[in-house]
Design brief:
- The complex is a heterodimer of chains A (231) and B (233).
- Chain A is built from nine helices and no strands.
- With 231 residues, chain A is mostly helical.
- Chain B is an all-alpha fold and 233 residues long.
- Chain B has a single domain, classed as MetI-like (MetI-like fold), CATH 1.10.3720.10.
- Chain B is globular and about 75 Å long.
- Chain B starts with 6 loop residues before the first helix and ends with a helix.
- Classes of the chains: A mainly alpha (231), B mainly alpha (233).
- At the A-B interface, helix 3, helix 4, helix 7, helix 8 and helix 9 of A face helix 3, helix 4, helix 9 and helix 10 of B.
Chain lengths: 231, 233
């Protein structure tokens, strides 16, 4: 076994060539995941609300959006945006931005479903009472429904973030400098330690995802306990 | 330079043939992996439910590890690095086959079986505990009770989530293009390389994936409506 390959390149796996060169490696993966979840949260919230809105057009648009995105492999969405950009803007987008947009669009469809399910799982009395006290539909949503629903959704959001973190590895395919790309670069350069390299990479991803999964399980337990407090 | 969108190019020969060939490979690799991952997933789930501690730990480690690492990294691992962890006989046998395809199948199988094991486990938990106790009391062994009483009932509950896992597998199979399996995504990429019309090629490929997904999810809904409602009576 050639574990020295790993120790020689470990900082490259973590931050790429950063102080001297561009940021890469695991740091880039995490940045993509954080940017992705931030964008996907707002877009997903919007689509999720459209899904339950009164306007028929909004409902149908949101339904078609989620069904199309959830029925397509992420890789297709990534390629699609990568090749759409030259048509739409006349020039190619940088790979990282193109991948980030694809990740946001892809994840937002799943977030929208979480948001819809979270809102629909609240007792109907909540919105009726809020409307009964004189709040408008928008105010009831903003001050009564969403604060409760979003709180209940936290574990699902964390799970979605775990999926997203794993999905950032696909950005490698259009050439973004992230952890998987770093691994294939080192593998192509050294050639003698593929097993060691890919085990290391898998463990790095695993640490992040497992910690988050464990966190989401604990949150879920706490939220369940909190909801059962006075029943 | 202006770009004209031209779907006719992709939908006519020779590229139509490429797309169909790619679709064939996608369906083939998915079918093989679905069968194998169902088998492996069931075994892992039974391990998890058994009383033998090492088996429980193994299955726990298996599901946690493979669910929490990206499929792409796993594909690379099986493609580039499997020779160091698999026995020599298996390696030689694999190299005599279509190795890209085999590595793709292994990666998809192992990844999906971790999810399937979890689905089956939660399906088994949904069966009242008295079922197992009653069948054990009738004199069945643990394996017999699982095989004849618990699993048949559990499978009926887990069929919809299992099918959506299979659907995920079909979508995930697009990743095997990275190791050179000539599936639908790979062919779309090839068409892009030959014609520079990547947008059209990927739109057509997306439409095909979408059609498969919609048919499958329509089937699940139908099943949920018909079978599960009958079963709940």
């Amino acid at each position: 076994m050639h574990w020295d390959v790993i120790s020689n390149n470990f900082s490259y796996f973590l931050i790429g060539a950063y102080p001297q060169g561009p940021l890469g490696g695991l740091a880039m993966s995490i940045l993509l995941a954080l940017g992705g979840i931030f964008g996907a949260f707002w877009l997903g919230l919007l689509i999720g609300l459209m899904r339950i809105s009164k306007s028929r057009f909004c409902r149908i648009f949101a339904l078609v959006y989620t069904e199309i995105i959830r029925g397509t492999p992420l890789l297709m969405v990534i390629f699609w945006f990568y090749f759409l950009a030259p048509i739409a803007f006349g020039h190619t987008l940088p790979e990282a931005e193109s991948a980030l947009i694809a990740l946001i669009v892809f994840t937002s469809a799943y977030i929208a479903e979480i948001v819809r399910a979270g809102i629909e799982s609240l007792p109907k009395g909540q919105s009726e009472a809020a409307r009964g006290t004189g709040l408008s539909r928008l105010q009831a949503m903003r001050y009564v429904i969403l604060p409760q629903a979003l709180f209940n959704m936290i574990p699902s959001f964390v799970n979605q973030f775990v999926s997203l973190t794993k999905d950032t590895s696909l950005a490698f395919i259009i050439g973004v400098n992230e952890l998987t790309k770093a691994a294939t670069q080192v593998n192509n350069r050294t050639l003698n330690a593929p097993t060691e390299i890919f085990i290391t990479i898998a463990v790095l991803y695993f640490i992040i995802c497992y910690v988050l999964t464990a966190l989401s399980r604990r949150l879920e337990k706490r939220i369940n306990r909190y909801q059962a407090r006075d029943r | 330079m202006s770009y004209t969108v031209d779907f006719g190019l992709v939908l006519n020969e020779p590229y139509r043939e490429w797309i169909l060939q790619g679709l064939g490979v996608t369906l083939q690799i998915s079918a093989v992996s679905i069968v194998l991952s169902l088998l492996l997933g069931t075994i892992i789930a039974v391990f998890r439910l058994s009383r033998v501690k090492p088996l429980v730990w193994f299955s726990l480690a298996f599901t946690e590890f493979f669910r929490n690492t990206p499929l792409l990294v796993q594909i690379f691992f099986w493609y580039f690095g499997s020779h160091a962890v698999l026995p020599d006989v298996v390696n030689k046998w694999l190299y005599r086959q279509d190795f890209e395809f085999a590595a793709g199948v292994i990666a998809l199988t192992v990844y999906t079986s971790a999810f399937i094991a979890e689905e089956i486990r939660s399906g088994v938990f949904a069966i009242p505990k008295t079922q197992l106790e009653a069948s054990r009391a009738c004199g069945l062994s643990f394996l017999q009770a699982m095989g004849y009483v618990i699993l048949p009932q559990a499978f009926r509950i887990v069929i919809p989530p299992l099918i959506s896992q299979f659907l995920n597998l079909i979508k995930n199979s697009s990743l095997v293009m990275t190791i050179g399996v000539m599936d639908l995504t790979y062919m779309a990429r090839q068409i892009e390389a030959h014609t520079f019309h990547g947008f059209e090629a990927f739109t057509v490929a997306t439409a095909i994936y979408l059609t498969i997904s919609l048919i499958v999810s329509y089937t699940i809904n139908l099943y949920n409506k018909r079978v599960l409602r009958v079963a709940s009576h």
